[in-house]
Each structure stands twice: as structure tokens, then as C-alpha cells.
């Protein structure tokens, strides 16, 4: 098949899915927005994939490019780019045109308005919806997509990259006594909540655990300095793996996280985890009490309690949690993601 992706912000896990599609013999074309400065991934695309810069095409030129490519499936990131909508309108009824989105249904005024406008804004352009999981499926249903035309599993971690790392926790001698945060330094990620809970815990408990933080962003210069906290900046995936081998528990305190592929990545890598209930991916990759703990969004006391519970667990219990995370993480892979694309192509 010829598959056209009309994308906004690319990430390395998406490239893993593209690689799988190319290995299956498909031709993949990707139009993308500029790389996010806060997540400057360096992408290595397979030879069978062709990448186009969105900034190089006006609306009419993008439509002509799409017509020349003559795709069998078109997948577009949401409805924010009007030129992407125009391409999908052209192909709707001829081939599957798939809208991806990761928004949760919250029922606020903007979402209610989009629910009303959907027949004119969305259904003129899209025949199907592809969402990460159950929180987004509810939104797609409210937008008027029929259940049979909604697929889950839009995001998949690069499981082959992360899964071999699980042995550093499941088979560790002395379990690594370090929490690790991976994400941007922005308010939505709740790092201020994590730092507050951590500093309180350090004052209240005598323990040897550390907190390592990976990422960058607007608030990086305001990062909290403490002997037990390390700030490692943004790391490319291969360098990140080296850091992960020295850490034991993943923590994500987000105030707002529509999905959070990093949760899937860390599950595949065998991390027990502490995650806020605002993180969408926790619905699929965290079984509370089995491979980690969830805490109520914004509740610093609950976050601190969850961190304390992890600190007090014996090594063998941490290893069991690590193994349980790994099992959940490998339950969905880029290969399965590629199969979903193929299924759209035969609908």
C-alpha cells in the first residue's frame, strides 16, 4: 500500500511504526511540522519512507502532492491544519481518511462546540478515527464516529528498543535505588509537585534513594537544586537507555497528559511506576498495586505517600513489579500498530 501521514509533531516511537510498515513492503510518505525544540529527536527514517516539510507547501501544493502520491490510506493529526483537512476532503469516499487525536472527553464548552460542528468540520474530511485508548474513544464517539469506525492503539512505544532493558530491574542484584522522570520541564508535567513531595520526603525519611530527571523545557532554568536530585537534560533514545539502566522506578506527576507514550516505554523497560491519574496511558499500562501506584492529580501528599511506599518495598517486591510492568509494556508493539494501518487499508 501507499500510506500518507499528515503529521504535526513527530516522535521516535512513530518512526518505529513507520519502520515496521516499510519492512512489510508498504510505501510511506510523511508530511511533518518542524521538530519541537523541547524534544529535538534525531530521526533515522527507513529508505522506503519519504519525508516532506509542511512549511514548504501551500495548501494547493500540498493537495497536488497528495494527488500525485495517490495513497491507499491517509492518516492526519487532528483537525488543526486546514490544508490537511483539505487533502482528506479530497480523498474521503475514495480511500480511508483517518483522523488521529489524543484528547480526553471532558465535556467542556469547546468540546461541546466541536461536537456540534463535527458534521461539517470533521465528517466531511474523515471516514475513521484512530485514538490511543479508552479515554479518547469516548471523545470520538461523542464527535459522531460510529464505534465500528474507531480504532484504538494510535500510539505505540518502540518496544524492541526498550524491552531488552527490563533485565536491569527484573534480574538486578541490588535493586537500583533511583527514581527517574522523563519528560519536558513545563507546568503541565507537574515537576513542581514532584520536587515539593521529594524534598518533604527527604526531610522526613532517612533513605539512600535519588531522583534523576531527564528532559528540558521552559522551566529547566527554574529547576530545583538538591544533592539527591540530578538534572540530565534532553537525551536521545540510545543515551537515555544508558541512564535507565542505573534507575529503578519511573515517576510521572503530570497535571495533564492526554496519553504519555513514555509510560508505555517505561513499562516495556520493566519499571515499577508512580503516575498521576491525569495520565491517559495509565489506563493501559499501570495496574495499581501490581506494577505501581497512581495518585490523585495535584495531590502532593498522595504523591509523597506513593514515593514512600516504593522506597520501603524490599528488592524482591520491586523486581516483581518490574516484571509485571514488562508484561504490560510488551502487550502492544510497533508490529501491532502497523497491522492497524493495514486494517484501515482493507476497510
What would you say this structure looks like, in words?
- 39% of the residues lie in helices and 16% in strands.
- The chain is of the alpha/beta class.
- It folds into two domains: 2-156 and 333-345, Rossmann fold, CATH 3.40.50.2000; 159-329, Rossmann fold (3-Layer(aba) Sandwich), CATH 3.40.50.
- The strands form two sheets. The protein has a seven-stranded parallel β-sheet with strand order 3-2-1-4-5-6-7, with helices on both faces.
- The longest helix is centred in the last third of the chain and has 15 residues, at 315-329.
- The protein is globular.
- It starts with a strand and ends with a helix.
Keywords:
globular, seven-stranded parallel sheet, 347 residues, Rossmann fold, 14 helices, 2 domains, six-stranded parallel sheet, alpha/beta, 39% helix
Structure described in brief:
By secondary structure, this protein is α/β, with parallel strands linked by helices.
* CATH architecture title of the largest domain: 3-Layer(aba) Sandwich
Number of strands: 13
Overall structural class, as computed from helix and strand content, comes to alpha/beta
Tell me the distance between the termini.
13 Å
Number of domains: 2
Strand and helix order: EHEEHEHEHEHEHHEHEEHEHEHEHHH
CATH homologous group name of the largest domain: Glycogen Phosphorylase B
CATH topology of the largest domain: Rossmann fold
User: What general outline do the C-alpha atoms trace?
Assistant: globular
Mean pLDDT: 94
CATH class of the largest domain: Alpha Beta
Widest sheet, order of strands: 3-2-1-4-5-6-7
Organism: Geofilum rubicundum JCM 15548
Keywords: Transferase
Domain Glycosyltransferase subfamily 4-like N-terminal: 17-150
Pfam family, one: Glyco_trans_4_4
